[in-house]
């Protein structure tokens, strides 16, 4: 590897054969991509399908089953052993499939969030996936972006890069493209003419030549193999996992107990084994974790289609609990399509008519526009703007007054600058002006007034008096009351090139403009919808208070100016006072990113679950601190995206509300699946335990329970997990995150459903025996009669579970209100379930293997009737709940 930091820019460019003004051509880039490979660090090798398969076998149920297979084998019940082993394999295959599908979904989402970079190719600036970057590319560096590869800088303007990923040093280092380091041992932290992959530009801008990609970078050398283990369980998954373990141990305890009881009942050893195994199979809730994983994965895939990319799975659960949405104004609540509609220089107000292109300005106005245009980085060509919309509006304004950006730039060369940041709310450039230089500053009018000592009035520079300040502020206030964003401009002349620190002082105020930024049309509805859902929307903005409140009123966020507060006012309050006042505040104006952390803290101190949006470098702390940090997909910096839980690909406030709705639905669906699975397991346990306690023959064999648990149950459970959303979900209050999973009668319904299913299974068993003249207490019941009765129990158990799943779709609405056929997957799962059930008992070899037989038509009638009872009972309870809710 050559030592790029010791070479001049020219040497480096020559060696990599690229002209920095044009960049590589697409063909060259393609060739180099093939030669050097994709620009990404090696990942840990993925688990193979085989490894996944064996991972599935590592759980308690499987141990029990393998034990059972061994025992049945030992005593010569080979058919049972085969069935059990088949079930083990099938279970693992289904598990692998679900895990694979879930993983694919997450992977696809991660692709959507891989960083992109700006490069110059074919003479144009293009945004490409960072993985496509090749040596020789010219990369444009902006504050807030990750450095995508190792770069030899060829241009730098106040560039600072935070290199903690490499050096551990969190204070950003200053970069200078013109430096050359002769010493070959220069430490990484001192290589000021280089930028390294995975570090972060925090300030300024620059350009760099790609000298190393992928594993050939400094970070690649350290991280030979990147250990990206992102397997984290969501709180809900963790809780269910614990619940599963507890239930599993309980099951084993009960098994042992039953075993002892059965011993006293003089049952045969072999029977006892089978009973104990049946019970273990019935009680161990094997499907829970898998169901939650797949429902979450399918859910986040669905959310990505409505423009919300969830980066961390736990966020889905938290989303359902959000009751405060803090949102930036510009671009999220508004369209970020700025247009200048008014301008003001002292004693001269001017409306800017739309469409007009040949406006004539006074001398002061021309100076105003000149400063604005020169102090902007945006471009506007052929009706299309790039860069900050605020600046695009200024350049469009310049065009209207025949002061085109290009022409001005050529005439007044830029020689220095101090970039915009949202703390100062100012930006300055230093341009040539005749034989000397001129500072052009633009920004928030209040801040400009603070650093101005003079004003430009009718072409002359006069001292800025208090009275003049008042006049300016009055006019500006009127504009902001009309929801206009006010931006001021000032200048000063110097003889020499001055450093950025000296630019923003002793300025001459020229005037200001007012620009509109219309609200997004759909946002008003979303705010209303959020309100109905018990969610308060709050606006946070760097803009002026009056402007902010005017827009907040329009959108329904606030009703009066009393509901607003400014950053300065916040600074004067203690944390306690602020936390007390915050309850009534809906608009936070003129705030800096640091205030956002304070705001989140204060809201959280009242137990609120807060979502916060952000896009800038400095927004990362507040995004991390919020319960749900939301980054902007279009305008957001890499840093903000990295710190967020969710990314909006359309930067739209409405998407947050839609995501909350999805989040609520996903949580509800998980709940439905889990409660359903638990009621099914409980039903089986009750049927078995009761038969043992009362000394009856067992109504179900282990293989039969296995069949139902792993085949018939899992289809409706998954179908419940993808239940279409309840349209009334946004009419309810947010879920309390501390609330138990079994709150609101979910636990009761699981127990009730389970108990009914258990009792009905036993009753069907009894009917089967009674039809042939036996009762539950009879001794020496012939095997074929037991088989017949067990078949009835078997079908009722499966059938009642299948029907019951319909009722699980909504806690209070009837199955008809929800729509009997509105979840096609569930209808399909039920039909398939019945077909499978019918198949098992009527296909001869299956029937023999599972020790079941075909039923008479009359008995089919009985089992279907029984099967409908748990569903019906639950529906009747719902009727009472609905009338109760009305009163
Ligand atoms: P939000 O936080 O809702 O996105 P915002 O976009 O108004 O609001 P900032 O971008 O931090 O917040 O801008 C704050 C203030 O800084 C603006 O009100 C404006 O006065 C000033 N400002 C914005 N953009 C520029 C710029 N490019 N140059 C100079 N000043 C600017």
From TrEMBL:
Residue stretches spanning the membrane: 49-72, 78-97, 246-264, 270-298, 674-694, 700-720, 741-767, 787-804, 825-846, 858-877
Key words, A-Z: ATP-binding, Membrane, Nucleotide-binding, Translocase, Transmembrane, Transmembrane helix
Reading the lineage from the top rank, the first entry is Bacteria
Main localization of the protein?
membrane
What does the UniProt entry say about where the protein is found?
Membrane
Secretion signal, residue range per the UniProt entry: none
Pfam entry (one): Cation_ATPase_N
Q: How does it sit in the membrane?
A: Multi-pass membrane protein
Q: Where is the Cation-transporting P-type ATPase N-terminal domain?
A: 3-77
Q: What is this protein called?
A: Cation-translocating P-type ATPase
